[in-house]
Every structure is written in C-alpha cells, then in structure tokens.
Specification:
The protein is α+β, with helices and mostly antiparallel strands and about 70 residues long. The protein has a single domain, classed as Irregular (Factor Xa Inhibitor). The chain contains 3 helices and 3 strands, in the order αββαβα. The chain has a 3-stranded antiparallel sheet. β1 and β2 form a beta hairpin.
Length: about 70
C-alpha cells in the first residue's frame, strides 16, 4: 500500500506537541487591532490546543504521520 499524503494546508496551520496534542494559532490577531483590548491581544498571541475529540480526527485524516 502506498504512503498516505499529508494535507499540506493542515500541516501549515497545525502542529503536534511532544505529547501528541494538536497546537494551532488563534484567530483575530491580523487587522482591526485598535478596538481590541490589550489583554485580549496578549491572550491571542499564545498557541491554542485543540480539544481531544477534534484532535483525533485531525491526526487521523489530515496529519497521518504526525
């Protein structure tokens, strides 16, 4: 059986931590930043962790060799 291909769009947006959790960049930090609170912008800078239910689907379908 041939190798499975990784979905490159997902690979650019998602990455795996050492313990196998799926990490992603949070949205809403690209433009129109003047009306957003500094606290909100600061919290958006940190990476988000996908929920276990969603991460199982992502690891199986989009990042098969992650």
């Amino acid at each position: 059986m041939p190798k499975m291909k990784t979905k490159k769009a997902a690979a650019k947006r998602l990455s795996l931590t050492g313990t196998g959790k799926v990490k992603y960049k949070k949205m809403n930090l690209r433009h129109i930043l003047t009306k957003k609170d500094p606290k909100r912008k600061r919290q958006l800078r940190s990476a988000g962790i996908l929920s276990p239910a969603d991460s199982a689907k992502v690891k199986k379908q989009l990042l098969p060799y992650g």
